[in-house]
Amino acid sequence: MKNVSHLVILLIILSVHHIAHAQFVNSGFRASLNTANAFDQNTFNKLGMSAGLVTEINPAKFMKLTLETNLIMSGDTKHFFEANDAKYYSVNLPAMLVIMPKKNFHIGVGADVSYLLFSSSGPIPNERFAAGAILNLEYRLFKRLGIGLRYNHTFATAQTLTNFELVSPDWQDQYGTVSLSVAYYMIKK
Predict the structure, then answer these.
(1) Contacts of 112 (CB under 8 A, 6+ apart)
(2) What is the DSSP letter of 79?
(3) Reduced to 3 states, what is the DSSP secondary structure of residue 77?
(4) What share of the chain is helix, strand, coil (3-state, %, to 5)?
């Protein structure tokens, strides 16, 4: 199963790279630190990290469609960098419609699907898929460098995903994640 997960990640990365060669498409890299269950006072806020590829499709000057492929690493009861804790690795696929009301200021809303790939030293939960909504604010410095703040709210988790629908979703397992990110874009002239 682990080899299949690696193959899926490789195919996604290659497809995003292929799309990025179009004239109206920009690509880049994003890295972020995030907190899990940031608004739950009964849960210890764990620091996680993610890194991935970003593709922007620019149909108009004031609007973009942003697609991402992110690999997320998080701890079970401790921060992602601490030892003696289960590390969970998941792939996250957000898609956002982004508007630019002012120069260099981007507001994005969208949806995402996540899949828990594997755990380095802990049990994998039955619910490996998650679906949620995203609100993203980003300010571009020097046109290529972006600093962003993102809120991701997971609505449901499920064991399987069939025809892009969560099978037997658990609507009780909702949580929010806040992340601070840095992105570098390879913008074509």
Answers:
(1) 92, 93, 94, 95, 131, 132, 133, 134, 152
(2) -
(3) coil
(4) 10, 60, 30
Radius of gyration over every alpha carbon of the chain, rounded to an integer in angstroms: 17
Contact yes or no for 109/152 (Cβ under 8 A): no
Q: How many Å apart are CA 165 and CA 152, to the nearest integer?
A: 19
CA distance 46 to 82: 10
Select from 34, 132, 41, 39 the least CA-distant residue to 88.
Answer: 34
pTM metric for this prediction: 0.75
Contact 108, 66 (CB under 8 A): yes
Longest dimension (CA), the chain: 49
- Cα gap 66→142, rounded to integer Å: 19
DSSP single-letter state for residue 16: H
Q: Which residue has the tokens 């499920």?
A: 158
Which helix (DSSP H) or strand (DSSP E) does residue 15 occupy? helix 2-19
Joined tokens for residue 108: 């994005």
What whole-number distance in Å separates Cα of residue 89 and Cα of residue 164? 21
Q: Are 135 and 108 in contact (CB under 8 A)?
A: yes
**pLDDT tens-digit series, residues 46-100:** 778 889 999 998 888 899 999 999 988 876 666 666 766 667 788 889 999 999 9
Both tokens of 45, joined, read: 């806020």
